Amino acid sequence: MIKSQIIKGFKENMESEVFHAENLCVFDQNLLFMKDKKFAKVYRETYEDKREKIRVWRVHIFLWAFINGLKLEGDLIECGVYRGFSSAVATRYTDFGRLSKKLYLFDTWEGIPAEQLDKNRTKIDRYEDQSNLKKVEERFKGLTNVKIIKGKVPEIFNETDTLTKVSFLHLDLNTSLGEIGALEVLFEKMVRGSVCLLDDYGNKIAIIQALKEHAWFKERNYFICELPTGQAMVTKT
Ligand SMILES: C[S@@+](CC[C@H](N)C(=O)[O-])C[C@H]1O[C@@H](n2cnc3c(N)ncnc32)[C@H](O)[C@@H]1O
């Protein structure tokens, strides 16, 4: 029923713009972020494969939360970096190297720790590829305010005592234990108005993560905004 309505809508709006990527299909919207010339240029110059190319709406939302974090006290954190694509677009768009902010990038660069795999998840081999860390080092070369930290979340935070105030938190670990572990340490350090962006919350495969995060935030009286991209966000109050 819903599907046939969508198809009918497309036929009747042939001249309307259609966005279709990563399980998201919308039409008849302004999509101004796609028409932002600077964003389009940075994005084109940064993506290296189809997987990165189609993340555009997700990265737009990441960039929005990242820029919000630049206006607040504290540093920015990404947990789950992989090849550093989202942060690379954001640092290039904001000319991050010239700012007096720090961006911390945490990853094992050896994949999701076996003991943290959610029941319905299998090992994702591409996360274990040695070239991922090299790619990150290459993408952030020369940016002395970007700290690339190899280690397991949340344990690695014990060795990173410089994290006192956080103005943006991106959680993209694909494991509920890792992400809840990060929240336990970092959420209290987030400053008022900062955004915690959960990359996978809406994706069916991440149901275990989503349910645990929903409960975690509910216990603390926070209401999660679920986005059509599959991301979700919470503003620290
Ligand atoms: C989906 S990828 C991140 C994608 C990236 N945020 C982007 O926008 O391109 C997930 C990453 O999380 C890392 N990871 C998973 N569990 C982890 C943990 N407990 N500690 C550190 N890194 C972890 C994996 O090694 C993998 O590189």
- Could you tell me the mean pLDDT? 93
Alpha-carbon distance between the two ends? 40 Å
Main beta sheet: strand number and arrangement? 7 strands, mixed
Low-pLDDT regions: 9-14
Q: Would you give the CATH topology?
A: Rossmann fold
- CATH superfamily label: Vaccinia Virus protein VP39
Description:
The relative contact order is 0.14. About 3% of the residues have low confidence. Helices cover 37% and strands 19% of the residues. The protein has one domain: Rossmann fold, CATH 3.40.50.150. It is of the alpha/beta class. The protein contains nine helices and nine strands. S-adenosylmethionine binds next to helix 6 and strand 4.
